[in-house]
Amino acid sequence: MTFDFRGKSALITGAAGGIGAAVAHLLGAAGAAVAVTDVALEGAQIVAQQINDAGGKAVAFKLDVSSADDVERVTAAAEAELGVITLGVTCAGIIRIVPFLELTADTWDRTLAINLKGTFLVFQALARRMIEAKQPGSLVGLSSVAGRGGRVSAVDYAASKAGVISVVRSAALAFAPHGITVNAVCPGIVQTEMTLNIHRERAKLSGITPEESLAKLASSIPLGRIETPEDVAGAIGFLLSPEGSYVTGQALNVCGGLEFD
Ligand SMILES: NC(=O)c1ccc[n+]([C@@H]2O[C@H](COP(=O)([O-])OP(=O)(O)OC[C@H]3O[C@@H](n4cnc5c(N)ncnc54)[C@H](O)[C@@H]3O)[C@@H](O)[C@H]2O)c1
Questions:
Q1: What does the pLDDT read at residue 120?
Q2: Which residues, given as ranges, of the chain have pLDDT below 50?
Q3: 187 within ligand 1 shell (Cβ under 6 A)
Q4: Ligand 1 mean position, distance from CA 15 (Å)
């Protein structure tokens, strides 16, 4: 599918690398003006520069999605620079591999503040502005196959990702009268820094190498290969595009067949 987002403006969180950067590149190449946001400003600036060098339009912003003030400030600044943002994708996220009995309340709070509250805050801020401007749009939140089931060593992460699906459903109902669709995607095992870190930590716990840990998991994927950030970005592009405009309130597994429900 060739996407055409000319004339649209988009804001992506967690866009300094991994899935967020792939989404920013896809939208930028398809003609959208892109606000590339991340708590890691330098990485966001590099991605924005790459989009601009390729002939697109992108601006980088430092944004910590767990801060309501930051979300308000950056969504306002992005709109001032790029016009009303009608496409939003929340990719900012963290994971720690900690056994259930060892997880601290502080780690729980931090994970939920970024993965779940951050999604809510960004959806709320962007939808408010679209509704005020009377413009339809589309939002996508990053959930995970982990949000479909349990994770013995990432209870906080799995709960945050199940929560993202719930926020998506509520937002879809709340914003449908304004022509704003809201969906989640649930990736499986994606080749990004997050996945590499997981396997460094898992390997420590189980006494094998990170490569052995990742290979073990990869062998369980029905499609037989690890997912790329571009695999996820393609599905998100569809949900944001006019072709996906009758899909709302859904959580789409993009996982090579790892999960069915
Ligand atoms: N990698 C996977 O296998 C996988 C699988 C399913 C779901 N996901 C989800 O997809 C999303 C992107 O994951 P990824 O693999 O690209 O991870 P990544 O670690 O490569 O990228 C995450 C980005 O989020 C940013 N970030 C962290 N805290 C932030 C904060 N407070 N405010 C703003 N930005 C912040 C990081 O700086 C980083 O650039 C995450 O929500 C993740 O949970 C990833």
A1: 99
A2: none
A3: yes
A4: 8
Q: Which atom of ligand 1 is nearest to the CA of 143?
A: 7
> The CATH number of 9-188+227-253 is which of 3.40.50.720, 3.10.180.10, 3.40.120.10, 2.40.170.20?
3.40.50.720
Best probe residue, ligand 1, of 13, 19, 168, 199 (max atoms within 8 Å of C-beta): 19
Element (H, E) at 69: helix 68-82
pLDDT at 41: 98
Residue 201: the pLDDT is 82
Q: Is the CB of 38 under 6 A from ligand 1?
A: yes
Q: What is the pLDDT of residue 211?
A: 83
Rounded to the nearest angstrom, the distance between the alpha carbon of 64 and the centre of ligand 1 is 12
Q: Give the pairing of strands 180-187 and 251-254.
A: parallel
Q: Rounded to two decimals, what is the model's pTM? A: 0.97
CB count, 10 Å around CB of 177? 8
Q: Is 250 exposed, middle or buried (0-12, 13-18, 19+ CB in 10 A)?
A: middle
Q: What is the DSSP letter of 226?
A: P
Cβ count near 228 (within 10 Å): 14
Nearest CA to ligand 1 atom 12: 91
**Where along the chain do its domains lie?**
9-188+227-253
**pLDDT confidence of residue 203:** 86
Full DSSP string of 73-136: HHHHHHHHHHS---EEEE---------GGG--HHHHHHHHIIIIIHHHHHHHHHHHHHHHTT--
* Ligand 1 centre distance from Cα of residue 177 (Å): 30
pLDDT reported for residue 157: 98
